[in-house]
Specification:
- The protein is of the alpha+beta class.
- The chain has one domain (about 35-190): Glucose Permease (Domain IIA) (Distorted Sandwich).
- The chain contains 4 helices and 9 strands.
- The protein has helices spanning about 1-15, 155-160, 165-175, 180-190; strands at about 35, 50-55, 60, 65-75, 90-95, 100-110, 120, 125-130, 140-150.
- Strands 1, 2, 3, 4, 5, 6, 7, 8 and 9 form a 9-stranded antiparallel beta sheet that branches.
- Strand 5 (about 90-95) and strand 6 form a beta hairpin.
């Protein structure tokens, strides 16, 4: 009987070892903010750190990471006569990511239905569509993309961008989860939580 039990175990155990469980694959934490469209962007932006992502009108602007919608500017009130800084973005959406970083996209042609302050979004969720609103009126469609720390929404000069996004865009486009949180925190320490409002800058 003992011999039979040993033989039975020698058959059962190897069979169990052949059971294959596929490895778990985690969803990406960060995604490129434009989907299903060819997009180009530069390393530099005039006057302050941000990026203009050039692509076709109507291309989807999506959440670069999971988070909560922070601001929705649903009306284009920009005027070339006044050129107020807080109005230059036209239609815009900003989210506070789960990483504590704010991601802001402006000059949109449309904001996605259901996108409102306080709404939670997943990485890749559509926030709006690329356009030329605000101070981009009359120019080629593009997404102004800014990375910053959260502030009151009246502090528009922080919201528009304090860290150059290009190396993060490069990583996300390549499928790499590179977080800008460290760079944003360093900029906050260097500039102060609410740096002075810019005066007499060249406006484009």
């Amino acid at each position: 009987m003992k011999l039979l039990r040993v033989l039975a175990l020698s058959i059962i155990i190897p069979t169990q070892l052949l059971i294959f469980t596929p490895p778990a694959t985690a969803a990406p934490i960060y995604v490129f903010p434009i989907t299903n469209c060819v997009a180009t962007y530069g390393k530099y932006h005039h006057n302050y750190p941000a990026t203009d992502i050039n692509t076709k009108r109507g291309c989807a602007f999506v959440a670069p990471t999971a988070g909560v919608v922070d601001v929705v500017l649903a009306k284009d009130v920009w005027s070339g006569k006044t050129n107020l800084g807080q109005d230059r973005g036209g239609l815009a959406v900003g989210i506070i990511g789960d990483d504590g970083v704010r991601y802001y996209g402006s000059h949109l042609s449309k904001i996605e239905p259901g996108i409102a302050a306080g709404v939670r979004v997943a990485a890749g969720a559509k926030l709006g569509e690329v356009g030329s609103t605000g101070s981009a009126r009359g120019t080629k469609p593009h997404l102004h993309f800014g990375i910053s720390w959260p502030t009151d929404n009246s502090v528009w000069w922080v919201r528009r961008g304090v860290v150059a996004p290009w190396k993060f865009l490069e990583a996300w486009k390549a499928g790499k989860d590179l977080s800008p949180a460290k760079a944003v925190n360093a900029a906050k320490l260097r500039l102060g939580e609410i740096p002075p409002e810019p005066k007499n800058e060249v406006r484009k």
